[in-house]
């Protein structure tokens, strides 16, 4: 069974060219038609004015004349008008007859029962235009002029406008092609760039905008600029993805090697003493925990956003207090000092408790990791005078943050030179900032006065809790 052939639509450029050409051609033909109508109207208007003037002169010249032909030279093109007087009653007609046709309408004008009117007739085989208007009492004046000159002028105007309109159609086609070509030039470049990106998988390609188009703010130029911006974001996302994969591979290599080594040692457990087996088992358990934590952090960070969980009103100060208590158990050699402002103790924030607790724990673990045994970590929470946010600060007295490292402390897997010998994967602060952003907060790092590092979290909060 053969499938019916699908008719492909013509390209957009051709359709736009045809549409623009048709529109311009239609306008050109409409203008020519309008010009012809105006020309014909003007010619007839002027001709009727000549007839009116001729009738006025004939009436003034023949005030005492009777019915009959007054002038009969209108058979010649350059002659004056023909004129004749027609009575109201046919019994008063002259014996010689009339040059122009006389009907009931002419008798009605003579009797003042009808308004003056124009008509057409023929004199000696020549077309004439006739004006019938009242003259003296009981008489109507008929005046005629040859009208073939007007008809010839109409034909000449029609021929000239037809030539102009005919020439306008190919001009319209050229204009339509030019409009489609120039108007769709950015779209053509956008299409070719998209096709090259699809073929080469190179997100570094961009649409080249000429200088004349960079200063314009039309829709197509904005589309090209937006497409370039989208490619910038795509290239940055791909680069971040590659960095994430490379950094994750590097960070996983060491713990996986250690896991393999301890697993191989435990395979020869019969050759080990009880103490050696316990040490190998403990090391394997710790390394499994570290790898699990690292993989979970990688999964969370790879989403580039927090998982959608239901928010609930919580007291950040209470969560911070629990996090400090847990940090004291985990880092017994470090002195954690918590200072909570009474105005901040009851402040409520819309948050996911587990994620906000993770943020506090990461900041506290980072501070403890850089503190010497017996060192002091100062944690404070207070509410500024504006009341719209809560500020949490975590300050340690360790080596601090070098000026060169300060812009990168929240980067994934970034580890300062002083931190490379310490445990950790370099994901804790990146995770903390991501959680802060998901809660519409802001986490910043500073060099503390007198040495050490200072981390400040600004978290939006609502009204105070009751009770």
Automatic annotation (TrEMBL):
It is an enzyme of class 2 (transferase). Residues 247-463 form the Histidine kinase domain. Its EC number is 2.7.13.3. GO terms for molecular function: kinase activity. It comes from the Bacteria. Residues 181-239 form the HAMP domain. InterPro entries: HAMP_dom, HATPase_C_sf, HATPase_dom, His_kinase_dom, HisK_dim/P_dom, HisK_dim/P_sf, Sig_transdc_His_kin-like_C, TCS_sensor_his_kinase. It catalyses: ATP + protein L-histidine = ADP + protein N-phospho-L-histidine. Keywords: Kinase, Membrane, Phosphoprotein, Transferase, Transmembrane, Transmembrane helix, Two-component regulatory system. PROSITE patterns: HAMP, HIS_KIN. It is found in: Cell membrane. SUPFAM superfamilies: ATPase domain of HSP90 chaperone/DNA topoisomerase II/histidine kinase, Homodimeric domain of signal transducing histidine kinase. PANTHER family: SENSOR HISTIDINE KINASE TRCS, SENSOR HISTIDINE KINASE YKOH. This is histidine kinase. It comes from Streptomyces musisoli.
């Amino acid at each position: 069974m053969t499938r019916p052939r699908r008719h492909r639509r013509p390209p957009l450029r051709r359709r736009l060219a045809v549409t623009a050409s048709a529109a311009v051609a239609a306008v050109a033909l409409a203008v020519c038609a309008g010009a012809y109508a105006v020309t014909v109207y003007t010619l007839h208007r002027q001709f009727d004015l000549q007839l009116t003037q001729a009738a006025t002169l004939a009436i003034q010249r023949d005030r005492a004349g009777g019915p009959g032909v007054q002038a009969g030279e209108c058979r010649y093109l350059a002659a004056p008008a023909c004129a004749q007087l027609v009575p109201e009653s046919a019994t008063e007609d002259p014996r010689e007859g009339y040059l122009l046709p006389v009907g009931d309408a002419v008798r009605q004008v003579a009797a003042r029962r009808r308004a003056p009117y124009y008509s057409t007739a023929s004199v000696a085989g020549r077309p004439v235009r006739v004006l019938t208007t009242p003259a003296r009492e009981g008489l109507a004046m008929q005046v005629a002029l040859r009208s073939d000159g007007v008809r010839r002028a109409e034909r000449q105007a029609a021929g000239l406008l037809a030539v102009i309109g005919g020439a306008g159609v190919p001009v319209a086609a050229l204009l339509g092609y030019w409009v489609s070509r120039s108007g769709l030039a950015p779209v053509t470049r956008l299409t070719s760039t998209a096709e090259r990106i699809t073929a080469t998988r190179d997100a570094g390609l961009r649409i080249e905008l000429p200088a004349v188009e960079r200063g314009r703010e039309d829709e197509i130029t904005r589309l090209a600029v937006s497409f370039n911006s989208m490619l910038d974001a795509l290239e940055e996302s791909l680069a971040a993805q590659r960095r994430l994969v490379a950094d994750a591979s590097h960070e996983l290599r060491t713990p996986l090697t250690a896991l393999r080594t301890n697993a191989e040692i435990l395979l020869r457990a019969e050759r080990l003493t009880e103490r050696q087996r316990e040490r190998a088992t403990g090391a394997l358990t710790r390394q499994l925990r570290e790898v699990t934590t690292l993989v979970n952090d990688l999964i969370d960070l790879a989403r580039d956003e927090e998982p959608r969980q239901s928010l609930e009103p919580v007291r950040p100060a209470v969560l911070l207090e629990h996090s400090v208590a847990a940090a004291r158990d985990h880092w017994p050699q470090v002195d954690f000092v918590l200072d909570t402002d009474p105005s901040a103790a009851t402040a409520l924030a819309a948050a996911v408790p587990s994620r906000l607790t993770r943020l506090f724990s990461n900041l506290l673990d980072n501070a403890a990791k850089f503190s010497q045994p017996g060192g002091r970590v100062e944690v404070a929470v207070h509410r500024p005078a504006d009341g719209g946010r809560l500020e949490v600060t975590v300050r340690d007295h360790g080596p601090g943050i070098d000026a060169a490292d300060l812009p990168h402390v929240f980067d994934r897997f970034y580890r300062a030179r002083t931190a490379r010998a310490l445990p950790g994967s370099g994901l804790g602060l990146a995770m903390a900032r991501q959680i802060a952003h998901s809660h519409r907060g802001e986490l910043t790092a500073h060099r503390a006065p007198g040495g050490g590092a200072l981390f400040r979290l600004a978290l939006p909060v609502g009204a105070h809790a009751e009770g």
